[in-house]
Every structure is written in structure tokens, then in C-alpha cells.
Design a protein that fits this description.
The complex is a heterodimer of chains A (281) and B (392).
Chain A lengths: L4 H34 L19 H8 L1 H34 L5 H13 L3 H14 L5 H26 L2 H9 L4 H30 L2 H5 L9 H6 L11 H27 L10
Helix pairs in contact in A: 1-11, 2-11, 3-6, 3-8, 4-6, 6-8, 7-8, 8-11
Chain B lengths: L3 E9 L5 E10 L4 E5 L6 H9 L6 E6 L2 E2 L10 E4 L11 H11 L4 H14 L15 H13 L5 E5 L7 H18 L2 E6 L2 H7 L2 E6 L2 E6 L1 H6 L4 H6 L6 E8 L2 E4 L2 E4 L2 H10 L4 E6 L4 E3 L5 H6 E13 L3 E8 L6 H10 L9 E8 L9 E7 L4 E3 L12
Parallel strand pairs in B: 3-8, 3-9, 6-7, 7-8
Antiparallel strand pairs in B: 1-2, 1-4, 4-5, 9-10, 11-12, 11-14, 12-13, 14-20, 15-19, 16-17, 16-19, 17-18
Classes of the chains: A mainly alpha (281), B alpha+beta (392).
Chain lengths: 281, 392
């Protein structure tokens, strides 16, 4: 194998690069297209050029000057952040219990949470709508935060318990022997080691909340709590004859960029193998 | 520094499994005691109960005369070294060793002094600012020891602390653990499955099997006077030879030939009301090449001639293996074989291991005569495992 290794790996590398390029192009073209549209003037929108002939920031200027979009952006950020914070805190506690403790009904709990994750959300939309209207939660922040927590918790519990399972239990025992209370052992030893897992989970949950369209569409009715994906769909031009494509593209870019930045920024932390060297290995 | 007393300590798991059964051990102040046995014998569970990491189902655990059954580990003032070392990967060596002191809310100057002192003793000073992941196995092991000694605890508990090291380093660390314990004079409970560690380290050794203490005693005492087949087979390397023996008139019929009953053996068998079938045990070092034995010694022993299977020359000695037609059978021997993994090697017939002088001219394939010391022969009851030759 070694003797022919050179040509063999080169051919393989080439094949893989080609395949990778194909996948990346396939995934990125729509994104770049949206970006290109967002920089086009209304007159050149449909000229079919990938690179705009006339560059303009007018689309961005117009969406950022309407309260419609700014208010939706504020709703999106607020709702996603609060839901993420609560889901991650609850998820951390639940995942820790699932990874470390034996208690009656553990399998049932894990099973049910998996079931919730699998549930088709559309089937819950009507009941949720009725419930929230009765309870006065309809078209409020909590009205969206609650379902978001419900549906992201299983995800949080699953990812986090996988992380907790990788932390050697002996570290916790060692902390107890060193004089720590269970709380101190968790805060000073387990939590720092679980941090990469918590970050990863937080990002996943945040993206889930940030991208949701279905609940945001059905459980809101006004600017009070409407999030960006829904606000986008309500965009119209200045007159009914004006094409809103430019504004929609600009808004899409504005809400996509934070996610990309967040993932790129946290990727390092996620990958950093903090647990290496804990035990022999 | 203090004494630890286990008084009928029992551990029963919720599913009913009995892990440790009525263990009584009195550990004196400053004593180095070893819990040894095959995996699953309850030694680690016993250690964890002393640590407070596992609940005690019944019985009493007293440290310094105080019952500590219901005290949390942190209130027992005991330090533990784990098999995996359990170093905190996000903390430097210095922070790892300072961790217990910081939890005890000592002031920074004291912490620094104690950590530097421990680092000096363990030769870790130049590694203090490194992370555990950048240390070698031996260095990690020393950091784990350091974290235990900085606090000056009442006792050290060690759970197979050397088993992750490679063979050569393990021997070195064994000596340094022993030296460190003497130097500090701290009561130490040490768990291992390695009988060599048990023999070399401990003031006293506790042999456990299936959650039950088999025998407690000084290493040499266990070696010379094992209470039963299990202890006899577990302590010593290579292990004691066991051959089935039947009582015939005036002697014992064995795979080693007809063995005459000395007064010692006869008295022992009468006293113990021995059954007709027994198991004869004799250690490899109680054999010698018959051509190297003088007449006086020859009179105190007996000889056996057999086909030499394998000769292993160690330089200082020769291990000579003979094939035997029969193999002694008992539950305890089977358990020992399973633990050492030798039950996986198919062997219907027995084997005799002898340790002969290096000058012995023995060669593989020869029919060779070996002498063995009848004064060292021990007899066991195959059904109970009891040592029949043990003086009361």
C-alpha cells in the first residue's frame, strides 16, 4: 500500500475535493443569491445577473427605517435568548440527572422527551392556538417562549447528557473527597468541563428558536411579538405594484448573518477538547 | 492520623446483591493496610464505604472512635487517590493540588506553602504550571498523590493507584509510595488486585473473596500460613501448586507419587478430622533439583520424577514445568483460575511449577528428578477449602 500510496492518495484527495466543492456550492448558491438580490436596485432585480450591475444599499436602508422590521428583530432576539437561557438551564439539570443518577422512571422520561422531539409540530398548532387564546398568552413573548422551550428541551437534554456522560464520574468523587459539597463539585469541576457542551447546546437551541416560522406565524398577530421570519413574509412594497423581493432579501441577510457569526465564533470553543487529560488516555 | 475500625460492615445493593459481608478490620494509627482480591471481591466497595462514596447498609465505621457512617465524604477528613487519578483537566497542577485547600478556605500564603512543600516531596516543582494533559502517566500519578498529601488528612485511601502505569514505572512508584507512607506516617488503606503490591507494600494484608474477608495478617504470615485454598493460591507468584491426594495406609497417593506422611502431617490430619480426599499444596520454591540436595535434606523431603515440559531460565533461578496427569478441583481454585485468565487456556491435566537453582542441569524433554520439602507441604479440604495443616 505504501509504495503506491502517493498516486493513490492524490487521486483520492482530488475526488474528495471535487465532491466537497460540489456540496459547498450547492449549499451556498442560494445564500449568495439572496445576498446578491439584496444589493440590487428594483430595476435590475430580474435581470438574471448573479453579480449586481448596480449596487445599492437602499434595501437595507428601507428595512432598517421601518419599525415593522426593527420591532420584529427585537422580538426575535429577546424571545430566542430567553427561551435559550431557560432551556439550557433546565436541560443541564435534567441531562446531569439522566447521565449520573439512577431514579425510577428514568427510561420513561427519556422516552417521552424523545417522543416530544419527534412530534409533528403542525398537529399542535391548533390546540396551542386555542390554549394560548384562553390563557391570554396569545401574541405575547411568553406565548412563543413556552413552546420553544418545550420543543428545544429534548434537543438540549440529548446533547447535554452526551457531554455529561463523557466526563469521568471519578472527577466528581475526587471533588467530594477533596472536601466539596455536591453543589461545589458541580460548579467547580463538572460545569467548567461541560461548558463546551453547554455552548453547543445553547447555539443549537438558539438557532431552533431563531429559525422557527410555524409557531411564530400562528401564535402571534401583531408587532408586539411577531418575529423576523414572520415579519419577512408580511413585507410588501411601498405600493402594491412594487416588488418587495429586495427588502425581503436584505432582511433575510440580516437575520442569517448573526447565526453564521455565532457558529464561526463558538466553533473553536465547541471543538476545544477540554476533557482531555482528565484520566489516563 | 488516626485509627479506622470496620465493625461488621455490610453492603447490600438495592437489587439484593451482597457486595460486602460483615467485614471486621481494625486499622491501627499509621498502619499501611492492603485490601487485595480478584475483581468483584468487594475490596473497592469497602474502600468507597470508608471514603463515604457509598452508603454502608449495616455495621459501623469508626474513625478515631467516632461513628462516621452518615457523614459526607468531606466531613471525614480522608484523602483518596483514584485509579484513573481523576485530576481536574481544566486546572493546572498547582491548582489541582491547591483544590482541597481552597475548599477548606485556607489563606493564599498557607496554600502556596503547602503546595510547594508537597511538590518538593513529589518532585513536581518544575511541572506546577502545566495542565494534567501535558504530563506523563507517572507525573499524573504523583499529582494525584500530591493532591492527597497537601491536606494532611487523617487517612489516605488508594484505589489501585499504580495499575495504569507500565510495569517498570509501577515497581519504582511502589517503592516511592511505601517510602512516602513511612515518611508521613499516615494511616493508609490501599486496594489492589496485584498480590506483589500487596506483599511488598503492606504492614498487613486483607484478602477478600466474594465480599467476605478470607484472612487478615502480615504478608509473610499469609504466605506461610494461608487460612484456606483461596489465600494460598492468591498469594505468591508463581502460584502454589495444588495436586489431588488420597489418604492411603501410611501415606498419600498423589500425582507426585506416594508421599509418606510425616508426623506433622499426620497430627494435622487427625486434629482436623480430615476427609479421605484432600488437596496437597506446595510452593514452587520448596522444590530443588534432586542432584543438588544433600542427604540430610533428602531425608526431610521426598522426590518426584517427571517429564520436563518447559524450562524458563530467569538467570537467578530456573522455573521448571512438569506435566501431571491429574488436576486438583475445587470451587476456589476455579475462581482463582478464572481471575488469572488461565481458565481460558484449555488444560485437562495438571501442571507442576518448580523453582530450581540456576545451576541445575535440567533440560526440556528430560525425565528429571526433583526433591521437595515435606516440612512445607500443606493440606487442604477440597470441599471447604480450609487449610488442614494450619496450627490453631
Amino acid at each position: 500500500m505504501a509504495a503506491f500510496g502517493g498516486t493513490d492518495t492524490r487521486a483520492r484527495k482530488l475526488r474528495w475535493s471535487l465532491l466537497n466543492t460540489l456540496v459547498v456550492v450547492y449549499a451556498l448558491v442560494p445564500v449568495l443569491w439572496i445576498m446578491s438580490l439584496s444589493f440590487k436596485t428594483p430595476a435590475t432585480l430580474n435581470d438574471g445577473n448573479f453579480i449586481p450591475r448596480e449596487w445599492t444599499l437602499e434595501n437595507y436602508r428601507s428595512i432598517l427605517s421601518t419599525t415593522e422590521f426593527l420591532r420584529a428583530l427585537l422580538n426575535s432576539i429577546g424571545i430566542a435568548l430567553i427561551a435559550t437561557a431557560i432551556a439550557v438551564v433546565l436541560g443541564t439539570m435534567a441531562a446531569y440527572a439522566i447521565a449520573r443518577l439512577q431514579f425510577p422512571g428514568k427510561r420513561l422520561l427519556v422516552g417521552v422527551s424523545l417522543l416530544i422531539a419527534m412530534f409533528p409540530q403542525i398537529s399542535l398548532v391548533s390546540p396551542l392556538f386555542e390554549i394560548e387564546r384562553t390563557l391570554g398568552l396569545f401574541d405575547t413573548w411568553p406565548g412563543l417562549i413556552l413552546p420553544y422551550i418545550t420543543f428545544s428541551l429534548p434537543l438540549a437534554i440529548y446533547t447535554l447528557s452526551a457531554f455529561f456522560r463523557e466526563i469521568p464520574w471519578e472527577l466528581e468523587k475526587a471533588a467530594k473527597m477533596d472536601g466539596a459539597t455536591p453543589g461545589q463539585a458541580f460548579l467547580k469541576v463538572i460545569a467548567p468541563l461541560a461548558a463546551p457542551g453547554v455552548f453547543t447546546t445553547a447555539i443549537l437551541v438558539f438557532i431552533f428558536c431563531w429559525n422557527d416560522f410555524l409557531f411564530a406565524l400562528t401564535l402571534t398577530s401583531t408587532e408586539r411579538s411577531r418575529t423576523v421570519p414572520v415579519a419577512l413574509s408580511f413585507f410588501t412594497g411601498d405600493s402594491q405594484f412594487q416588488d418587495p423581493t429586495g427588502s425581503i432579501s436584505a432582511a433575510a441577510v440580516v437575520i442569517t448573518v448573526p447565526i453564521i457569526v455565532a457558529v464561526l465564533f463558538f466553533q473553536r470553543r465547541i471543538v476545544a477538547g477540554l476533557t482531555s487529560g482528565a484520566v489516563k488516555g | 492520623m488516626s485509627d479506622i475500625v470496620l465493625d461488621r460492615v455490610t453492603k447490600r445493593y438495592p437489587d439484593g446483591a451482597l457486595a460486602v459481608q460483615e467485614v471486621n478490620i481494625e486499622i491501627a494509627d499509621g498502619e499501611f493496610i492492603i485490601l487485595v482480591g480478584p475483581s468483584g471481591c468487594g475490596k473497592s466497595t469497602t474502600l468507597n464505604m470508608i471514603a463515604g462514596l457509598e452508603d454502608i447498609t449495616s455495621g459501623e465505621l469508626r474513625i478515631d472512635g467516632t461513628v462516621v457512617n452518615d457523614r459526607a465524604p468531606k466531613d471525614r477528613d480522608i484523602a483518596m487517590v483514584f485509579q484513573s487519578y481523576a485530576l481536574y483537566p481544566h486546572l493546572s497542577v498547582r491548582e489541582n493540588m491547591a483544590f482541597p485547600l481552597r475548599l477548606a478556605k485556607l489563606d493564599t500564603a498557607t496554600i502556596d506553602r503547602k503546595v510547594n512543600e508537597a511538590a518538593r516531596i513529589l518532585d513536581l516543582t518544575q511541572h506546577l504550571d502545566r495542565r494534567p494533559s501535558n504530563l506523563s502517566g507517572g507525573q499524573r500519578q504523583r499529582v494525584a498523590m500530591g493532591r492527597a498529601i497537601v491536606r494532611n488528612p487523617k487517612a489516605f485511601l488508594m484505589d489501585e493507584p499504580l495499575s495504569n502505569l507500565d510495569a517498570k514505572l509501577r515497581v519504582q512508584m511502589r517503592t516511592s509510595v511505601s517510602r512516602l507512607q513511612k515518611q508521613l506516617g499516615t494511616t493508609t488503606v490501599y486496594v489492589t488486585h496485584d498480590q506483589t503490591e500487596a506483599m511488598t507494600l503492606g504492614d498487613r494484608v486483607v484478602v477478600m473473596r466474594g465480599g467476605v474477608v478470607q484472612q487478615i495478617g502480615a504478608p509473610q504470615h499469609l504466605y506461610e500460613h494461608p487460612a484456606n485454598l483461596f489465600v494460598a493460591g492468591f498469594i505468591g507468584s508463581p502460584a502454589m501448586n495444588f495436586v489431588p491426594a488420597a489418604v492411603a495406609d501410611g501415606g498419600l497417593a498423589t500425582a507426585l507419587g506416594e508421599i509418606r506422611l510425616t508426623d506433622r502431617l499426620r497430627r494435622a490430619m487427625e486434629r482436623a478430622d480430615a476427609p479421605r480426599e484432600v488437596i496437597l499444596g506446595i510452593r514452587p520454591e520448596h522444590f530443588e533439583d534432586a542432584s543438588l540436595v544433600d542427604d540430610r535434606m533428602r531425608a526431610e523431603g521426598d522426590v518426584f520424577t517427571g517429564l520436563v515440559d518447559v524450562v524458563e531460565s530467569m538467570g537467578s533461578d530456573k522455573y521448571v514445568y512438569y506435566a501431571l496427569d491429574e488436576k486438583a478441583r475445587s470451587a476456589e481454585l476455579e475462581e482463582l483460575a478464572a481471575d488469572s485468565g488461565s481458565s481460558d487456556v484449555p488444560a485437562s491435566e495438571g501442571q507442576l511449577v518448580t523453582r530450581l537453582s540456576a545451576v541445575s542441569p535440567v533440560r526440556e524433554g528430560d525425565h528429571h528428578e526433583v526433591w521437595f520439602d515435606l516440612g512445607k507441604v500443606q493440606l487442604f479440604d477440597p470441599s471447604t477449602g480450609r487449610n488442614l495443616t494450619l496450627e490453631a
